Model the fold of this input.
Amino acid sequence: MLDASLRYFHQAAEVLGLSTNIREILVTPRRVMKVEIVTEGDDGLLSRHIGFRVQHNNARGPYKGGLRYHPAMDEDHASALASLMTWKTAIVNVPFGGAKGGISCDPSKMSVVDLDRVTRTFVERTKEIMGPTLDIPAPDVNTNPEVMAWIMDEYSKYEGFSPAVVTGKPVHLFGSVGRDEATGRGVMYALREALRDQGKKLSDITVAIQGFGNVGSHAARLIAAEGGTIVAVADHLGGVSKPDGLDVPALFAWAGQHHTVDAFPGGDAFDCSEIITWPADVLIPAALEDAITADHAPDVQASIIIEAANGPTTPEANDLLHKRGVTIVPDILANAGGVTVSYFEWAQNIQQFRWEIDRVNAELEKVMIRAYQDVRDVAAKRKIDLRTASFVLGIQRVGIASLSRQHARVPIDLS
Ligand code: GLU
Done:
């Protein structure tokens, strides 16, 4: 993960002709915090977890990025994901920097009470570096609005009422309408724009989706609502397919009840490992990183990949797919709808003013279209792929802000 994000960074830095010195400045996180979280478990015994927060860059605004609860969470992981947030917030041009954090734990083996305790202890340990104008966490893998509510509550105990310290909160607790589906909605807009470039519409295409969590499920629902045909969906327990299109609202309801798409009666079951090479026009990886590997690349049938997850394509697979002419809309553009509506939520909290859903969706649509066009223009101008163009645009915007803040006298061409 760290290797991949560094590789893409250097590819873009090469295009921009950045020196080693400037590259190092831009790549190094500004601050890394690692905390020990000791809590009393449900069994009355002490349990220990390690929590991380990597603050990568804040030249364009407060640090911003999710908190991930996962056994594989470590400092390298958090660093790679934090840097992706920096480029992502710059690409959609919201006034934030980039951060990421989380706790190395397995929430599927923890009770809600245990998760609450661990979360609150994490806040207690990291509160000095968090705040509405400092660093604003949000949901990521295995965290949700409920966890964000605990964070707001715990932080407010120390600092006073602070809804803007975290985004992705429940709507009844200072969250924004539309935030829950925002990443999936942004994925739908990104796909729509990529299709427009090829003279196609959502109603012309078939789609296979890996992952049916927050991002995959809303993306499926919204793409289907716009006329797209969702032919296959898989999660880690199983897959379900229907050549003339799954009934996505019914699948949504099933997954809500059973926490998996497996055994959904409205389609044919298949082994989840087949989803990446499923015969469909579009593939949307919306699960974890490294889902599409060099082994899959020759057999991928989709001509467009929309990276709804962070880092779902390995660099080797990326190169092979690129050579085969597959269009990849990269994570830092495709899934930026989440942080965009996080920005709207933060702005609403700061202003003590609530937006209607139509406003949230209309503003999100504008931001996603603009970001897609900006990236596509860079790609066309420099004759590079969308991923490299996204990194180039992100690095340019962050680089200009960093340099004009701190190093104004050093002449660097970021144009
Ligand atoms: N975790 C999400 C992401 O990777 C959202 C971050 C945010 O809203 O701050 O983009």
Q: What stands out?
A: Residues 298 and 324 are 8 Å apart (CA to CA). The first strand starts at residue 31 and ends at 40. The mean pLDDT is 96. The longest helix spans residues 357-382.
